[in-house]
Amino acid sequence: MSTEFWRDLKPISNVFKADARPEVYLKDAPTEDERYYVPFSETVSSRPLWISPTQNRWADILYCKGPGLVNRHYHPQQVFAYTISGRWGYLEHDWVATAGDFVYEAPGEAHTLVAYDYHEPMRVHFNVTGPLIWLDEEGQPSGHFDVFDYIDLARAHYEKVGIGAAYVDQLFR
Known about the structure:
Blueprint lengths: L37 E2 L5 E8 L4 E8 L3 E8 L3 E7 L2 E3 L11 E4 L3 E7 L6 E8 L2 E4 L5 E5 L1 H14 L13
Antiparallel strand pairs: 1-2, 2-3, 3-9, 4-8, 4-10, 5-7, 5-9, 6-8, 10-11
């Protein structure tokens, strides 16, 4: 006997409203295939999962095989994070995130992301709104990274590794 009581339900026939875009479905989002991870630094990479140029937002899997660093930065908008594997945190906080941990970063927070040496790679699902403002050692702005920088970086990387620059376009919503 099946416990899937919904098996006889008829699916909605008109799924999308006029001009709506379809969902993004990516099998095995935190993949082992490193070609899908765009290098952010010498030690940390990112797999884009969803990109919204009009909202200056993206969702990704941040990935690091060993000790890693994403330079000091400031978020003028909110960020959500869910840890899939590994150990990571911010030099400015006393917590260390591991598999299953959730982090909400309020607008106005500055920090230095570090990945710890651990027996499994760091994989964290991030949902980022707005730019990252890079900070120098005194905490002063020294540059930025927004969705358009991310798109350019991803296109160049995917072209270089043979996936093709246009791969990124399927993620736009």
